[in-house]
Amino acid sequence: MIKNTLAFFILFTVFFNLPAQDILGQWKTIDDNTGDAKSIVEIFEEDGKIYGKIIAVFNPDVEHRKCIDCSGEQKDQRIVGLVFIEGLTKNHNVYDGGTILNPENGSTYRCRLKLENDTDTLQVRGYLAFFYRTQYWKRVK
C-alpha cells in the first residue's frame, strides 16, 4: 500500500509540475505599449542553452521584412525565422546569461526569462546597464 501511494505521489508530481514549469514551446508576444499581439515565438533548447525564434507575425506588412539594422549573422535575415534570443541557461527559477535582439532597431540586450506564477505568462526582460524593459508573453495552447 505504501509503495502504491508513493508511486502515485511521484507520478502526480511529475505529471502536474514539470510541464507547467517549462518555458519551452510557443509564446504570443504582446507589445508592452499597445497591448496588441505581435508575433509567435518558439522557445527551444539546443546544446543545453535556451533560444527563441520568431515563427509568425500578425502584421502582414512585417512578414517579409528583414532585419536591416542588425549586425553579424542576423543582418538582413527575414524577421520570420529570426533567432533573436540566444544562449540563456537556467539559474534557479530564471533563465539568463544570454541576449535578446530587438529586430526593430538591431539593438542587443542582456536577457532574462521567468515564468510567472500562472505558468502561462512569461516575463521577458531585456537589460542595458541599469535600464530594462519588460514584456509579458502568453503561452500558445
UniProtKB/TrEMBL annotation:
Signal peptide segment: 1-20
Entry superkingdom: Bacteria
Domain DUF2147: from-to ranges: 25-139
Asked if the Swiss-Prot or TrEMBL record annotates the protein with the keyword Signal, the reply is yes
Keywords attached to this entry: Signal
Q: What name does this protein carry?
A: DUF2147 domain-containing protein
Gene3D superfamilies xrefs: 2.40.128.520
A Pfam family hit: DUF2147
